[in-house]
């Protein structure tokens, strides 16, 4: 089906965009080049980003943020990861901030052979182990992404590859294949947590079941190398309904929360966002129960590509921060905060909220859905918990140009009033 090719198409469009930007192709056998230089402050290359700074040069997708909390002297550093493309190869670019998200500098790259020779890499995640798993101590960094998705569906054989860093992201080594799909279907968007039982648990989207256009799956590992107990985490009896793109956080009381999108379920909104809880990080209840739908206290409907973060808050379980691609009106159309807001829930014990819209540190105009614009953004609280670091993506200069990552820092609490969209003249450029 056409819908199953969207993420593979993302890889193709992304690579074309980088070539269009003037990147020179070099021999694949050449040594891996040094990470691309950090952009100069204020070097924003697109008219669509109203607020935000360019994080790196060289194309980016699926940005993720982690603050090191179990890494000794390195604690407090913020790492970002992106999936990018160069020399016919998809790979990960890791950047580091030592000033709480004010600036980022290149740190390392992960070049997986399974993403080379146009095979492609997509849909990655970044995670710091909070405790020892197998021979991996607390503080070990894990990166995982989908490899082998650049080929046509008839030839594609996707896998989710896991890499490990023991030196706070400076160097990386291959660890395991989390899942290997048969020829044709895709496995996408891994997410990690450590269960109450001490296993490394991973979630991913799977479109290989002939009974379901897409469903969420989960597996676990006692050592990060051997993955077992694959089971369905979320599915729907209606074939076209597509749950996916999970994000997981553990609350201070030991409860786990997960957000995810459910596409083709709501007759008005294409991809609504839902949330659910687990007491142990492995058992998430009935896989046919969609959970609790997230809607803001003003009726704003967050749509697509959700990620979640945990910040200190007025209650013992802190507060939840939600990032998403678009914001719809309760009866359709676009809400005033579309492209300019994230949401906060001051009481994670109540998944219904209220969820309040607050200004996003990075704000994007003309945000009506694409494989780049505000796609799969990421949030992380600052060290004092009063503000948030925000990374998201947008086209540079024009649709079809490079997809770049932009970042910003903004308040979470009382200083964050609901964002209002300022009137702008209509952009008549093709593709807007």
UniProtKB/TrEMBL annotation:
The keyword Signal applies. It comes from the Bacteria. Residues 1-20 form the signal peptide. Keywords: Signal. This is BNR repeat protein. It comes from Saccharopolyspora dendranthemae.
């Amino acid at each position: 089906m056409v819908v199953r090719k969207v993420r593979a198409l993302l890889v193709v469009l992304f690579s074309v965009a980088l070539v269009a930007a003037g990147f020179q192709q070099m021999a694949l056998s050449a040594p891996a080049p040094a990470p691309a230089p950090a952009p100069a402050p204020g070097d924003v290359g697109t008219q669509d980003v109203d607020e935000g700074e360019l994080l790196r040069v060289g194309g980016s997708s699926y940005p993720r943020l982690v603050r090191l909390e179990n890494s000794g002297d390195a604690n407090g550093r913020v790492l970002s990861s992106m999936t990018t493309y160069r020399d016919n190869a998809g790979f990960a670019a890791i950047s580091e901030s030592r000033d709480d998200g004010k600036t980022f500098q290149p740190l390392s790259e992960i070049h997986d052979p399974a993403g080379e020779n146009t095979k492609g890499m997509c849909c990655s995640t970044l995670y710091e182990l909070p405790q020892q798993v197998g021979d991996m101590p607390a503080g070990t960094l894990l990166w995982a992404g989908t490899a082998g998705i650049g080929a046509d569906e008839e030839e594609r054989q996707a896998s989710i590859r896991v890499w490990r860093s023991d030196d706070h992201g400076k160097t990386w080594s291959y660890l395991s294949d989390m899942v290997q799909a048969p020829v044709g279907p895709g496995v996408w968007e891994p997410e990690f947590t450590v269960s109450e039982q001490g296993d490394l648990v991973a979630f991913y989207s799977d479109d290989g079941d002939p009974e379901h256009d897409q469903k969420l799956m989960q597996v676990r590992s006692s050592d990060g190398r051997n993955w077992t107990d694959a089971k369905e985490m979320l599915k729907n009896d209606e074939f076209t309904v597509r749950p996916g793109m999970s994000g997981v956080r553990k609350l201070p009381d030991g409860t786990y929360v997960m957000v995810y999108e459910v596409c083709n379920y709501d007759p008005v909104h294409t991809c609504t966002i839902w949330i659910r809880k687990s007491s142990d990080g492995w058992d998430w209840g009935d896989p046919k129960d969609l959970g609790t739908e997230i809607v803001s206290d003003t009726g704003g409907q967050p749509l697509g590509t959700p990620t979640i973060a945990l910040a200190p808050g007025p209650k013992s379980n802190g507060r939840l921060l939600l990032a998403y691609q678009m914001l719809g009106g309760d009866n359709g159309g676009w809400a005033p905060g579309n492209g300019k807001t994230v949401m906060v829930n001051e009481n994670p014990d109540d998944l219904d909220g209220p969820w309040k819209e607050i200004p996003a540190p990075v704000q994007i105009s003309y945000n009506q859905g694409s494989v780049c614009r505000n796609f799969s953004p990421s949030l992380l609280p600052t060290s004092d918990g009063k503000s948030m670091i925000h990374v998201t993506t947008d086209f540079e200069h024009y649709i079809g140009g490079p997809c770049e990552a932009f970042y910003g820092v903004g308040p979470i609490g009382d200083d964050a009033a609901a964002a209002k969209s300022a009137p702008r003249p209509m952009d008549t450029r093709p593709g807007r």
